[in-house]
């Protein structure tokens, strides 16, 4: 039997990168997996087709996380499939760099809306559908603990907020048997990693393991936290960074 057979999961921001790897992994392990995306319609469709061709169950929903109404609708739509939601992965995230001097406050607001507010709102929307054994996992970042490059104050702030929010929600939901955790990846090979060779070279000097993380490695940690063996882990922010913050 598959680890997540009969389970239903929602992953926000599942069309590319780490989110897509999480979708693949949970579906491979037997879950019915719905995921949201903001604009990558073709990639989202291709991922659903790939999972279905492999015998899995997947559903893509366009829902910009900054649009709380659309996000709530997505949560409700997924919960209706099986009358409940077992696993919520708040993964959608945005990274816009900029020095403090001229960082547009509109961008600040959008970063907070997608990286923080949407995660909180998705949990709120999911709770009526989530029972004992429920799992909430949010993709934070090592940026919550270490900001090694200029221009990252807002991104780091949002990930620090994810960490603190995770601790608070974990205490709120512990009596209901729902665990709440964050994962804190270090630099991982996705579209989010800078392509500038000079930045990449500097980044590599900060990576004891000497390479970027793989999206599938991040997904493995999410699969562990989502599974029954992780029932005693809650309120944790688990670093997975190849030694970047060591
Ligand atoms: P990508 O840019 O590769 O993918 C981002 C995903 O999130 C896409 O599926 C994208 O959808 C979706 N997304 C972005 N904005 C929204 C939105 N407003 N509403 C709904 N979906 C949205 O990033 P990563 O995979 O690298 O990042 C995933 C998470 O991991 C983020 O939270 C990020 O902060 C975090 N992280 C990444 C690290 C890294 O080094 N890569 C390190 C630490 C943390 P669409 O395709 O439609 O745009």
How would you describe this structure to a colleague?
With 246 residues, the chain is of the alpha/beta class. The chain has a single domain, classed as NAD(P)-binding Rossmann-like Domain (Rossmann fold, 3-Layer(aba) Sandwich). It is 42% helix and 15% strand. Strand 2, helix 2 and strand 3 form a beta-alpha-beta unit. The chain is globular and about 50 Å long. The model has no long low-confidence stretch (mean pLDDT 98). The site of NADPH dihydro-nicotinamide-adenine-dinucleotide phosphate has 31 residues, from helix 1 and strand 2. The site of NADPH dihydro-nicotinamide-adenine-dinucleotide phosphate (NDP) has 31 residues, from helix 1 and strand 2. Belongs to the short-chain dehydrogenases/reductases (SDR) family.
| Radius of gyration, in angstroms, nearest whole number | 17 Å
Secondary-structure content class: alpha/beta
- Largest sheet at a glance? 7 strands, parallel
Principal-axis shape: globular
Which fold name is given in CATH as the topology? Answer: Rossmann fold
Considering DSSP H and I runs of 4 or more, what fraction of the residues is helical?
Answer: 40-55%
Distinct small molecules: NADPH dihydro-nicotinamide-adenine-dinucleotide phosphate
The CATH superfamily bears the name NAD(P)-binding Rossmann-like Domain
Number of helices: 7
Q: How many individual β-strands? A: 7
Instruction: Please provide the ordered H/E string of secondary-structure elements.
Output: EHEHEHEHEHEHHE
Q: Uncertain spans, ≥5 residues at pLDDT below 50? A: none
Task: Please report the distance between the alpha carbons of the first and last residues.
Answer: 38 Å
């Amino acid at each position: 039997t598959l680890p997540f057979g009969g389970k239903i999961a929602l992953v926000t921001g599942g069309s590319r990168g780490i989110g897509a790897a999480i979708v693949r992994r949970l579906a491979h392990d037997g879950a019915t997996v719905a995921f949201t995306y903001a604009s990558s319609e073709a990639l989202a469709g291709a991922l659903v087709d790939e999972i279905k061709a492999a015998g899995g169950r997947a559903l893509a929903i366009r829902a910009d996380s900054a649009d709380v109404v659309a996000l709530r609708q997505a949560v409700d739509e997924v919960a209706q499939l099986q009358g409940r939601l077992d696993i919520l992965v708040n993964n959608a995230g945005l990274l816009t760099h900029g020095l403090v001097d001229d960082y547009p406050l509109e961008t600040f607001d959008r970063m907070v809306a997608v990286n923080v507010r949407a995660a909180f709102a998705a949990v709120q929307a999911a709770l009526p559908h989530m029972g004992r054994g429920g799992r909430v996992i949010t993709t934070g970042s090592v940026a919550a603990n270490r900001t090694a490059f200029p221009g990252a104050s807002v991104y780091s702030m949002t990930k620090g907020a994810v960490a603190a929010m995770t601790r608070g929600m974990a205490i709120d939901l512990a009596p209901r048997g729902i665990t709440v955790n964050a994962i804190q990846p270090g630099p991982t090979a996705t579209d989010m990693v800078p392509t500038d060779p000079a930045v990449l070279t500097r980044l590599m000097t900060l990576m004891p393991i000497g390479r970027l993380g793989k999206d599938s490695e991040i997904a493995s940690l999410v699969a562990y936290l989502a599974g029954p063996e992780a029932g005693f882990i809650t309120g944790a922010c688990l670093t997975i960074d190849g030694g970047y913050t060591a």
